[in-house]
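in:
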């Protein structure tokens, strides 16, 4: 089968299209024909090996995982002998390593059926970004209906889902984005939009019960100032210029400052959860959430897709078709 392989860390140029052996499903696994995948900042970090601390898990000198990629949408080709929930021909999506290939194997309990009417491309845009947004708002942010929520970094993959999910969960949503994305943010369900090229959300005088910060471009003190006295800051992203620790340094600082604050200051790591994917699938079926896809590439164009993602200007999700 064809797959994108990565033998060393570096720029998108280190990625190669190669012929590799097709995997076989284990007892509790599915063999999936990949129809679409998408790229995330996670993939960019894995590609470049930065921040360097991540290499403790990914591989010190070179990646342990030959085929990168995590988001997958496709058709079940075969099932393991212990699998009863799926059968060949089912259309599924979820998170599994090795997604930048024609086929992959995935644990059956990590996959969810694609809702009727949703394309493979739309489904592939969902897993990592939507799970991050949902878990950040609902679990770490403890969002309740009627609260005022601000999404900083509302035009990217996670942000476009966060705006829609916050609205679907009953919040009054303020989106922070650039001038060119103001209209898109409103169309996704934002009640208010702040153009960060004109003003900072930390200086408006408005206060929020929950800030989901994906951009990570303000100091902790500034972000605390924009919270209500008992508000919550959930940090998803952080400074990208720190090659050693990246957002981890910001998360550690948040933990220290949070110990002395009445406001909740928390970070997060996305959990792979089929139950949470099913929640998102239900919201998509109800028409409350729609993946925002900016660009689509073919598998052999994956280096171009990641190069564009690395520029930091993506508006919504970037999808790659198999």
């Amino acid at each position: 089968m064809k797959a994108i392989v990565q033998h060393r860390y570096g720029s998108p140029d280190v990625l190669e299209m190669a012929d590799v052996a097709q995997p076989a499903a284990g007892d509790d696994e599915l063999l999936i024909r990949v129809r679409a995948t998408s790229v995330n900042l996670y993939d960019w970090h894995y590609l470049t090996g930065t921040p360097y601390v991540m290499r403790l898990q990914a591989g010190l000198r070179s990646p342990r995982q030959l085929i990168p990629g995590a988001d997958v949408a496709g058709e079940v080709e075969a099932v393991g002998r212990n699998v009863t929930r799926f059968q060949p021909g089912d259309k599924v999506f979820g998170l599994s390593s090795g997604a930048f290939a024609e086929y992959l194997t995935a644990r059956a309990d990590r996959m969810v059926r694609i809702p009727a009417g949703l394309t493979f491309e739309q489904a592939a845009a969902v897993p990592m970004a939507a799970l991050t947004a949902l878990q950040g708002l609902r679990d770490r942010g403890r969002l309740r209906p009627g609260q005022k929520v601000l999404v900083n970094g509302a035009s990217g993959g996670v942000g476009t889902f966060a705006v829609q999910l916050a609205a679907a969960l009953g919040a009054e949503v303020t989106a922070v984005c650039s001038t060119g994305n103001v209209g898109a943010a409103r169309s996704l369900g934002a009640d208010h939009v702040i153009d960060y090229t004109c003003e900072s959300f930390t200086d408006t005088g408005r206060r929020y019960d929950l800030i989901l910060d994906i951009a990570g471009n303000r100091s902790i003190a500034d972000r605390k100032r924009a919270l209500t006295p008992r508000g919550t800051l959930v940090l998803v992203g952080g400074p990208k210029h720190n090659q050693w620790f990246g957002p981890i340094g910001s998360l550690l600082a948040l933990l220290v400052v949070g110990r002395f604050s009445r406001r909740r200051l928390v970070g997060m790591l996305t959990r792979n959860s089929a139950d949470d994917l099913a929640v998102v699938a239900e919201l998509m079926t109800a028409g409350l959430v729609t993946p925002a896809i900016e660009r689509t590439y073919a598998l052999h164009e994956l280096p171009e897709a990641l190069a564009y993602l690395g520029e930091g200007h993506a508006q919504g999700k970037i999808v790659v078709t198999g």
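note: The longest helix spans residues 127-140.
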